[in-house]
Write a structure and sequence with these properties.
Helix content: over 70%
Strand content: under 5%
Number of strands: 0
Largest sheet: none
Structural class: mainly alpha
Length: 108
């Protein structure tokens, strides 16, 4: 449980910083949006990882990639709605934010 909370907090902070760099709106609103978006996508990611993890550990990246695709699929409309942006921009923001935050798994 502690690991999941740490991962959630790290993701919220990382994606907030990315949103702030890309969107350039008020920090308070962007942090709240990051918090809300990740509260919705973190449970989906956890369920996807559990549901798609293969029995052979050398194929873990397939599960990881499927999870990230699902998260981007959910985040894109949320970013579009909350940031009041175009679909393309919302997709690119989600793609960049998730590529960076997902890569933290290899660091920690």
């Amino acid at each position: 449980m502690r690991t999941e909370i740490t991962a959630l907090l790290l993701t919220i902070i990382t994606e907030f910083l990315i949103y702030f760099a890309l969107v350039r709106k008020g920090a308070k609103g962007l942090f709240l949006n990051s918090f809300l978006i990740n509260l919705m996508t973190q449970p989906i990611a956890n369920l996807m990882i559990v549901g798609t993890t293969p029995k052979s550990s050398h194929e873990w990246w397939v599960s990881y990639l499927l999870t990230e695709v699902a998260v981007i699929g959910v985040e894109t409309p949320l970013i579009r709605l909350l940031f009041k942006t175009e679909w393309r921009s919302a997709f690119l923001i989600s793609l960049v934010a998730n590529a960076i935050s997902a890569s933290l798994v290899f660091v920690f």
